[in-house]
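User: I'm writing a tutorial on reading structure tokens. Could you give me a worked example: one chain, its sequence, then its tokens, then a sentence or two explaining what the tokens reveal?
Assistant: Sure. Here is the example chain.
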Amino acid sequence: MKLHKAGASAAAALVLALTATACGGDSSDDSGSEGGGKIAIGIKFDQPGLGLKTPDGTFTGFDVDVATYVAKELGYDAKDIEWKQAPSAERENLIANGDVKFVAASYSINDERKQKVDFAGPYFLAHQDLLVRADDSSITKPEDLNSKKLCSVTGSTSAQNVKERLAPKAGLLEQGGYSECLTGLENKTVDALTTDDSILAGYAAQKEHEGKFKLVGLKLSDENYGIGLKKGDTELLGKINDALKKMESDGSWQKAVTANFGPAGYKNEPAPAIG
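And here are its predicted structure tokens:
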């Protein structure tokens, strides 16, 4: 009889445990208040200087540093962060589906995107620019590309901007990724690469590229990077903005800029006003 009672008690305890788990007792679920569990954050995995997954599985870049700082202010340690790849075309979906708490992935704020998500920030101001070989002084303005070969990734709005408005006679070569453009630039099969200056600086700052390339310093567009989050979450929006303000005021923002872009000789804009 005692054995029977013990078995019944164990079974009841198992049922209670399973019920608690089904009701959201999993500590890795961050759907409740900030802190105390895990947090999923969307970043780029393939942008040196901004968001890069290294061969050893770690993550580096300015966006990573910003997101880590914000997460800490929300109550999460670095070990609590689950990094999720956020390709440009998937950022809104990741946010809307609740796959991530927020996205920090060279995410330019614009009116179209603000219809779908809310933005904290901006936390960085980038500009479209050109990357050329360090010893090339023949390209100092967009019009100089009219007799040159310009490289960018397939479907790039940056390349189309140059081709259609600034240098219609430029020879445009579209590649699958920026690394192919860098190889072409180094081998002199192309003369310039265009995209956001922050992305260009990230590539130029890589150890294997140090001293090989330089940014021309043009400001062909304004790209205000923001942190995207689910529309209507005003509480989280306010907390992230507070974290970004603190990051700038305590010097952590400039430290992250210098660490990730400094080797490229990148002259960044001052931290933009938040909110």
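What the tokens reveal: The first helix runs from residue 2 to 22. Residues 134 and 214 are 5 Å apart (CA to CA).
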